[in-house]
Structures are given as C-alpha cells and as structure tokens.
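Lecture notes, unit on protein representations.

Consider one protein chain, 362 amino acids long.
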Amino acid sequence: MRLKKISIFLICALLAPMTSVPSGAVENNELASTVLAPSNYVLADKTKVENLVTSQLSNPLFSTGYGISIRDVTDGSVLFESNAQNSMLPASLTKIYTAASTAITLDPDSRFVTKVKYLDNSVYLVGGADPQLGTESNPVKADLADLAKQTAEKLKEFNVFEVNVFIDDSILGPLQRPTDWVDNYFSSSEIHLISALNLDDPSAPGQAPIDPSITTGQKFALYLLKNNIKVNGLVFRKTAPQDAFEVAKEYSKSVSQVIEDLLIISNNQDAEIIARVASLVAQNDPSTEAATDLILEDVEMLGISSVDNVIRDASGLSRSNKISPSDISQLIYKSIKNPEITKSNRGETAKFMITPSLPIPA
C-alpha cells in the first residue's frame, strides 16, 4: 500500500493549558475571549522544547514532510521551528482561521433564529443558517421537534389542522459545494451540501442527503404529524411571502459557543455554514469564494500576511488549502493577545441574526 503524505503541525496551543470555562459561561453573554484566556504560564525552556521535539522526528510518521512552529504565548517568541515558513496542507487546522474570522465579523453574543411562518394554509420553515439545529435525538439549543410543537399549538388556536409545508433556505442562496471537494466526501453524513437549514441529527443515515434543506423540511413535517397536524403532499422549496406571519421560532446557541463547539469537535458543517454567515453579514455575499476571501482578509487584521496562504474552503477538507505552521502559531498568539480586534464587529449582524438584550428562555 502506498503511504499518503502527511504534514504535521505542532503549534503553540500545546505549550500552555487553557482555562476550563463551562459551556454555560458563554451563554451568559460572556465574550468568546474568556474561552481563550490562558491559565498560569510555565516558563518554557527552549533547549528542553527543542530536545523533546527533535527526539520525536525520527519517527517514520514524519519522514514524508512536516512543519513545526512553537511559540511562547506570553510574548509570541519562537521557541522552536522547523520548515515553519513552508505553506502546507493544514487540514482541519483551517478551522482556526475560520474561527478567528468569524469572531472578528460576527457579534459573539448574537444567535441564529429558525422561524416558522404561516399564510393561507401553508407553513414555511425559514432557515436562519443555524449550524446546530437539533432533533429529538440531539436536543441542543434549537430543536426542530420543539419548533413543530410550537407551530402545531398556534395552528390549533387558528382552528387549522391541515397544511402544506414549504422550506425557505434562501438566506444563504443556492445549496453550495466548494469546487474541489471530491465525491466520496459525501459518502457519510459528516459533510453535505451547505444549506441554511442544516439538521444536526446523529440518527440520520450515513449517506449525506441530496438536498439537506428538503430533508430538514421532511423531518419537520413528520413532527407536525406527531402533533396531529396533517401535511398535504410533499415538502417543496418556496420563499415565504412577505405577508406571512410568524407562528414559532427557536434560537441557537450564541456565536461564541458555536465557534467553541466547532473547534473542540472539529465540525466541518458548522465551519462551512458560519463562514458563509460571516461573509453574508460583512459583504452581503454568502458564496464560497467570498467566504474564503473574507477569512484571509480578517486574519490580516490580526497581522498575518495572506501572501503565501491559500484557502478554498472553511473546514479544511479542500486539498488546495495552504498555510504555513508559523502563520498558524502566530494567529493563535495574536488571537489571545489582541482580544480588542476580535470584539470589533464590523458587520451588520442585526440584519440577519439577533443579539438579545435580555436572556432568551431555555
């Protein structure tokens, strides 16, 4: 069997433990910078660091190529580097760039809103690009089952027991796929076409849905049936009429919590969706090209040059992405040391999301 080439990045995140911040802390409107606050520093011995790293490089795993950049998070000084200036395939470390860009562009306390609207015996499930819209098998902050229950209760107040169901995922435009994603990426449910009605359902079949928005609408229709609302025919895509009125809504976790989640579990779908929301807010353009351009532009605000870097998607699945280990370690250091930049929200988040002035009920 021919071994695939492997690029290894060792970055400054390995040097200092991070504070353990409860997930609920961000939900209480604490900014994402608190999640990144390092704990007590331990002075690094450059010689010991170099000896430790070089002792591992005889491992055959590193024989086909590696890049290493280790920095002291107190002052950003380099403790050890090797091949650190060479741009390499970063894989999921691309998400560090995506997270930094999103934190710069979006209000960290803002939330995605998934709505249901009604008009003339038709129900419209309106996607707000919540990357983590859940189900009964994954009851997170926004739950599709609860949304259907709210809808059914309101419809019954109107004496409506039979409806047509449509999905409106227009906020992110047509379903998207980065140009160099290969077909076998879609053989599992880990990634699928990028949609404003993404359903985070661990009970879903392994194969990615052909149309994730329609799949979400179908699941919603089933939940309506469970609540004794009859659904006529199939679920179709249709933009909600302007005079349709709201009957239900669900709020996501805060942006800062979504960012934390996508970094902790390296969630591809979350990274791709939130990058497009950031691009929509900043540039009114949620396309893949606009989103990846914005990532590089935002990272430059932190002082990281994009001259030798290439980003073709937000998750790191693209084989065309190229970032140097030195740039990644610099980005981590500068993100920690320059929280005022990540708090400078230059996008009009309120046009597409909500930033609550009062706590949102659980």
